[in-house]
Design brief:
This protein is mainly α and 110 residues long. Helix content is 79%, strand content 0%. The longest helix is centred in the middle third of the chain and has 23 residues.
Amino acid sequence: MSENFLKIPQGDQNRILDVILEEFARKGYQRASTNAILEKAGIPKGTLFYFFGSKKEVFLYVVDSAIQRLINIYKSLALHEPADLFEGLLYRMKVKLQFIQQEPLLYQFF
């Protein structure tokens, strides 16, 4: 599926994934345009499908990537959750707000 994508440099992968995430976050799956992704990412026409095969595979890959980013962010933010139930709820809300501030597109995507 994405073996070809994983062969390009990590910086290029991140840049392309950010563009894909933004397109799907702002427009949803149905209205997202692969042509817009290609234009914003600055990659030649057909390259996206060389990397992934189809729009559906692009979307599924970015979902997997976004979930992993979400997990990593929450792990880094939620290091010292209080044992008290109410303090824990307040702490989780603060973590959520930090996440929204740090990753607004990722939040919008979900």
